[in-house]
Amino acid sequence: MLKSLNLSRILVNQSAGLRGYKKDMGLGSTPTYQNKRLIDSSFAVDVCKDVNNINLRLGNLSLTSQYLTGASLLNSSGTSLQPTTQIKQIQLPTASKRIVEAPSSEIIKQKTFITTIKTEVKEPEIKTRISEPITIRIKKYAARMLLLRKRKMKKHKLKRLWDRMYLKFLANKTQSKKRSEIQFRGRLAAKVTDARKFDAETFVKSYLTELHTPLIPATYKGKRLPQWLIVELMENDKLKEKEALMEGKTYTTKEDIVKPGETVKSFIERTWK
Fold this sequence. Notes:
Elements: H1 2-25, H2 41-53, H3 58-69, H4 76-79, H5 104-107, H6 143-196, H7 200-212, E1 219-220, E2 223-224, H8 227-245, H9 264-271
Antiparallel strand pairs: 1-2
């Protein structure tokens, strides 16, 4: 369709050019009512030959050039192939002389060969004074936060332990309750048997014997001695007290042998009459 349109436009332009060419040359025009032709047949043959020699694909290139240059595609004069002065030349950008280098070529240096660097051996430095490794002490705060964290961790660990060992703890608790119940029932049964064996008469007699038995101290005059020796010494003390009471008295009447304020003469007269 585009090729036929371009061809029709070329023929119209060629016919208009031929008319102007005949007027300029003085050839005159042939009557149109004869043979019903616009121009002479020989001239038409020459024009057709000239048209056939033209490459029809140049019309597409002309339209593309007009679109790229921004010209209007509706202009009929711009689509013709005859005037070569209307075709605008498109200048393509030239290659810049700027050299762009990759950033890795400057930063990364690839080693082409392996070299061994010999380390210099130096004598160790002798330090006469030993200083602390840390010269600036960093103050640490939030002591209460650490205590709270430890408390929370203990609570969390205890909770996890109960989640993990709940059944074991429950079994141990029931077992301990069962054991304590058995021990309580055993003690209660022993008390019941002792109550059934109780005799009131024997209990009163044993109580009275304990009441009347003198208590023997564990020490004698602040000295810890055997029990039999303490009893013997206490008996000797009792005899000495009796002898002290009976001193100067008769054994039968337990009267004073010598009365207070009595003389020897009065004593002889009273005793030996």
